[in-house]
Amino acid sequence: MAVVNVKSEIAGNVWKIQLKPGDKVEVEGEIMILESMKMEIPILAPVAGTIKEFKVKEGDVVQEGQVVALIE
């Protein structure tokens, strides 16, 4: 099974992780929420699958283009 990298589209802080490894996610399902410039920006799944791993944790600072999760 292919593993897909989920990348952040913006720089910000990981405010809330909505799922845990092993959870199923649909296409465009919300994986986590970033906080940037006092706005909440959702990170959505680019594909349907199962969350394999998170590369960040709540409170982490992420950069634009950084891999934040893996879906298989």
Fraction of residues in H or I helices: under 10%
Q: Helix- and strand-based class?
A: mainly beta
- What separation lies between the terminal Cα atoms? 6 Å
- Strand portion: over 45%
**Mind telling me the C-alpha Rg?**
11 Å
Overall mean pLDDT score?
A: 96
Question: What overall geometry do the principal axes of the alpha carbons give?
Answer: globular
Q: What are the segments in which pLDDT stays under 50 over at least 5 consecutive residues? A: none
What's the quaternary structure here? Answer: single chain
Count of helical regions: 0
Could you give the order of strands across the largest sheet? Answer: 1-8-6-3
Order of helices and strands: EEEEEEEE
Give a quick account of the main beta sheet: strands, pairing sense, barrel closure.
4 strands, antiparallel
Number of strands: 8
Write the layout of secondary structure elements.
Elements: E1 4-7, E2 12-17, E3 24-25, E4 30-36, E5 39-44, E6 49-54, E7 61-62, E8 67-71
Antiparallel strand pairs: 1-8, 2-4, 2-7, 3-6, 4-5, 6-8
Short description:
The protein is mostly beta strands. It contains no helices and eight strands.
